[in-house]
Amino acid sequence: MSESLILDVRNVTKRYDSLEVLKGITLGLNKGETKVVIGPSGSGKSTLLRCINHLTTPDSGEIYLDGEEIRDANINAMRARMGFVFQDFNLFSHLNVLDNVRICQMKVKGADKKAATHRTEQELARVGLEEKAGAYPAELSGGQQQRVSIARALAMDPVVLLFDEPTSALDPELTGEVVRVMQQLAADGMTMVVVTHEMSFARQAADEIIFMENGHIVEQGSPDAMFTSANNERTRAFLNVIA
Ligand code: ADP
Ligand code: MG
């Protein structure tokens, strides 16, 4: 149903000089859906996420968030409604965990300190880090830092969360704690686009898996369909290598 369409990406293209990185990407995300984007390095996955929140401006096409077109002119308001979780956490190293999660609520949303503190405590509990409010990023493991980054995004009440390889910078033993938080979010009905190589997450949490290659969506389907009978030979080859 169109009224539940939260993110609507229509025919987005992007080139860097002669390199066409996105060659017309169309995808839609309904409220509560998790879509996992997979594909080889350089296929345009990060560029797609960056175009969605205009860290990179698309060359053509339209992107709508909850029915409103995302444009340079309204980008700050739109960004406040999208959470972005990066591979390298992007925490403020000079702020402790409490302030990392609290600052955007106060500066961007205008929340007062008491409300922001309360919300921060809730979100830290949700990611299992209520004990770490006073710690600085350098005192945390990578997995803990990424969970703080997720709590920070959640505290902004995003209508959609975008993840760009959230576990790629982590040692394997720290990946699980971040994946479990993401699985819980998916189960709780968060709307999410997740670029990841974590096929266990894709299999378990994705409503749909999108396979990108060379700036195109080559194939998309349910985890069952993609893992058991991907039609496209490239998709099959990719899944066999990675799974
Ligand atoms: P992925 O995330 O799937 O690995 P990217 O979206 O990061 O792919 O990159 C797609 C292609 O675009 C790559 O060839 C990359 O080198 C190129 N690219 C990405 N960002 C830039 C940029 N700012 N300037 C020039 N080329 C870029
Ligand atoms: Mg990338």
From TrEMBL:
Pfam families, per the entry: ABC_tran
Taxonomic superkingdom: Bacteria
Cellular-component GO terms for this entry: plasma membrane
Localization per Swiss-Prot or TrEMBL: Cell inner membrane
Stored InterPro entries: AAA+_ATPase, ABC_ATPase_HisP-typ, ABC_transporter-like_ATP-bd, ABC_transporter-like_CS, MetN_ABC_transporter-like, P-loop_NTPase
Molecular-function GO term, any one: ABC-type amino acid transporter activity
Main location: membrane
The name this protein goes by in its record: Amino acid ABC transporter ATP-binding protein, PAAT family
Keywords of this entry: Amino-acid transport, ATP-binding, Cell membrane, Membrane, Nucleotide-binding, Transport
The UniProt record lists the keyword Transport: yes
Recorded topology in the membrane: Peripheral membrane protein
CDD domains the UniProt entry points to: ABC_HisP_GlnQ (cd03262)
Keyword Transport listed: yes
UniProt similarity note: Belongs to the ABC transporter superfamily.
Residue ranges of every copy of the ABC transporter domain listed in the record: 7-239
